[in-house]
Design goal:
Elements: H1 2-27, E1 51-54, H2 58-74, E2 80-84, H3 87-97, E3 102-105, H4 111-121, E4 125-129, H5 135-143, E5 148-153, H6 157-164, H7 167-175, E6 179-182, H8 185-193, E7 199-201, H9 213-223, E8 231-237, H10 241-253, E9 260-265, H11 271-280, E10 285-287, E11 300-302, H12 309-315, E12 318-321, H13 334-338, E13 343-345, H14 353-361, E14 365-367, H15 371-383, H16 385-401, H17 405-410
Parallel strand pairs: 1-2, 1-4, 2-3, 4-5, 5-6, 6-7, 8-9, 8-12, 9-11, 10-11, 12-13, 13-14
Helix pairs in contact: 2-3, 4-5, 5-7, 9-12, 10-15, 15-16
């Protein structure tokens, strides 16, 4: 009854959802791309039933890439249908998987939209990454006997408190899943508290990164024109962190006058504003999209392209992780750690709490409360390459020893699928 009330309310709100979608597309044109797919109007699947993998945005999409390759190997007769919610997630899928998968935007949790999505997509099974609980979507999959899994599942204390208010709605949805593969025992307990039954803690898929040889080669190619300049990559920055980076850069260049800052905003649409900030600060910057080499007098390379962050991490001497010096919950430090780079981040790593704790305990990262502390940390590494190298090697070792969640996740899936 509660789910029916929820579904009925969303049906009544459909005109408002449509209006919001068109307004957002007007405000942020990237969201206008294939907006109709959010109402389930995806291309019709032909041939064998696809395997559907849903990843909300960039972090989830990156974590899903090794899983997708493993699915292709395990079920060679089934194509991959991958959905995201954000345009940046879609860009990662295009950049890293190309034409090997079919990308669509996930439907809103409207009854008609999810029914249309399943009718047109015809997935043989569905895998949802991390923390996406949509009652109508889950119910529609169960009605169609589509096995649905929640992989790399995590639930922060804040999310758990919010979800607990709706446990009578969310509990049956979670119970309809074939399995929940949680990142940790704490996450598994949180899902059980909401009513989930088929839950197992298997570790974090983000550690199961692919081999890094190609990324190292791409980083070396980027680095070659810069010569011996020390390079600091600040990845996935949010508003407020760009200004912090500029202040830290000025401090560091007093000791390391040839230091190059590679600044990578999380959302490329912010790059015009960041470029204006750089000009206002009197910093000489080059935009990556200009396609020109960085000149010796230029202090900043502003990366306004998508999909290149791992290669820039590989080109770095030191790395900082954005979303952690402002209250955004942080971003994944493991891509840099897997490349044996010394990693620094701020105090806001709530979304990667366990990973951050593991890296800090292993001497593989440093946490800085503010710009002054970050400048001290980076200066220490830049002045002592051996210490930086040791920290990076510690991080690489952590990634290697924590692998295994991918194999344990795959063991939850059926051996064969219907076509």
């Amino acid at each position: 009854m509660i789910r029916r009330l929820y579904a009925g309310l969303l049906c009544l709100l459909t005109p408002l959802v449509l209006g919001f979608t068109l307004w957002r597309a007007w405000r942020r044109p990237a969201y206008g791309e294939r907006w109709w797919q959010r109402f389930g109007w995806i291309p019709r699947s032909r041939g064998p039933a696809p395997l559907w993998v849903h990843a909300v945005s960039v972090g989830e999409a990156i974590a899903a890439i090794p899983l997708i390759h493993a699915l292709e190997e395990r079920y060679p007769g089934h194509p991959i249908l991958m959905s995201t919610t954000t345009p940046t997630g879609a860009a990662v899928v295009r950049a890293r998987l190309g034409e090997g998968v079919t990308h669509v935007y996930a439907p809103y949790d409207l009854p008609a939209a999810v029914a249309r999505f399943f009718r047109r997509g015809r997935p043989a099974l569905g895998i949802i990454m991390e923390t996406e609980v949509w009652p109508n979507l889950y119910h529609a999959a169960a009605r169609r006997a589509i096995p649905l899994y929640l992989f790399n599942a995590r639930l922060s204390q804040r999310s758990q408190r919010g979800y607990q208010r709706f446990h009578r709605l969310l509990g049956p949805a979670l119970q309809s899943l074939h399995a929940i593969a949680a990142q940790s025992e704490a996450d598994a307990a949180a899902f059980r508290a909401l009513g989930a039954t088929q839950v197992v803690a298997i570790g974090n898929l983000k550690y199961d990164l692919p081999e890094q040889d190609a990324t190292h080669a791409a980083g070396a190619a980027l680095r070659q024109p810069w010569g011996d300049r020390p390079v600091w990559v600040f990845g996935s920055t949010h508003a407020g962190e760009d200004e912090l980076a500029m202040a830290v850069l000025r401090t560091l260049r007093q000791q390391f006058p040839h230091l190059l800052l590679v600044l990578v905003p999380r959302h490329p649409e912010r790059c015009d504003g960041v470029a204006a900030l750089l000009r206002a600060q009197g910093l000489h910057a080059q935009r990556r999209s200009a396609g020109q080499p960085v000149r010796p007098e230029q202090e900043v390379l502003l990366v306004d392209t998508l999909g290149e962050l791992p290669a820039f991490y590989a080109a770095a001497d030191v790395v900082s992780i954005g979303g952690s010096f402002v209250p955004k919950g942080g971003h994944n430090p493991l891509e840099a750690a897997a490349l044996a780079k010394p990693v620094s981040f701020g105090s806001h790593m709530e979304n990667f709490r366990d990973i951050a704790s593991t890296l800090l305990a292993a001497g593989a990262a440093m946490q800085a409360a503010d710009g002054n502390a970050l400048a001290v940390t980076l200066a220490r590494w830049l002045a002592d390459p051996a210490a930086a190298r040791e920290s990076g090697q510690n991080g690489q070792r952590v990634v290697q020893t924590q692998r295994g969640a991918l194999a344990r996740s795959l063991a939850l899936l059926p051996e064969r699928l219907q076509t």
